[in-house]
Amino acid sequence: MLCAALLNLLFLGPVPVQAAQLPAAGIAAEVTKGVAAYNAQDLKYYESALAPDAVYIADDGMTFTGKESVAGLFGRLFAATPHRRMEIADLTTGGRENVAWARFKWTITRGETSRKGICSILFTRAGDAWQAVQIQNTPDGHGSPGGHH
Question: Residue 31: how many CB atoms within 10 A of its CB?
């Protein structure tokens, strides 16, 4: 189902969609909830927001496949002290009907250490909710001397 939805999104071209059906506002709200849950170490949010076949690609290239694996990673991250805190900027969203995406720059601070990167998330609609099917993080500066701007 996801594959067919993505193919329709990518290859069939523009499809007239009423403004109320566009997912951008819902996706922006979902990203905001995800950041708040990350900062609160709310694992239950991620257990509900991840699709069963979710894939998480960490900024070091490590790949976690399946909801349990991804939720397990978040559980380990949330258990670490000092706690991580995420701030985001330049949130961009888009999509059509049952498939959507988000991209944003992030800064994660843990104690005195901070690092920056960019995140892309693919979502599918699951009933009335959105679920993340793929999350990919890339560290700032990956592939370019000046980092992202």
Answer: 21
3-state secondary structure of 140: coil
**Model confidence at 128, in pLDDT bands (50, 70, 90)?**
confident
Peptide bond before 82: cis, by omega within 30 degrees of 0?
Answer: yes
Structural domains of the chain ordered from first start = 22-139 (3.10.450.50)
End-to-end CA distance of the chain: give it in Å, rounded.
35
Q: What is the pLDDT of residues 67-82, one digit of tens each?
A: 999 999 999 999 999 9
Total-model pTM: 0.80
Distance of CA 15 to the CA centre of its chain: 25
pLDDT score of 124: 95
The continuous run of DSSP H or E covering 145 comes out as none
* Whole-angstrom distance, CA of residue 79 vs CA of residue 75: 6
